[in-house]
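Please describe what follows:
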Amino acid sequence: LTLPVLTFAVGVTRGVRIDEPMYIGKEIKKDGAQGDKPATLANCTNLEDGTPCMIVVPAVVQGNFDEHYPDAAYVGKSFAIEKRAKRDGKRYFDYMIAEIEGA
């Protein structure tokens, strides 16, 4: 079963409920060669329309979840996640993450 991927655009807040612990996706090889590091994924529910989906979990978001929700305590909780612009001199995007109570 393949779920649609919910993407994040800069400045757009997306609401998701994390339904299962994050996991490592499959390695994708490029023309038989070693591919990029496999993505971290999470199966979720899109709070906008209630549909099941998956998100590619950026390292910044994964680190935040691991730090603030040990032992996958984020499962069953809902979050507003917004991709922010890159800071000067950084190679990654910042993210705003807020737990949505009672969602």
In short: The chain has one helix and six strands.
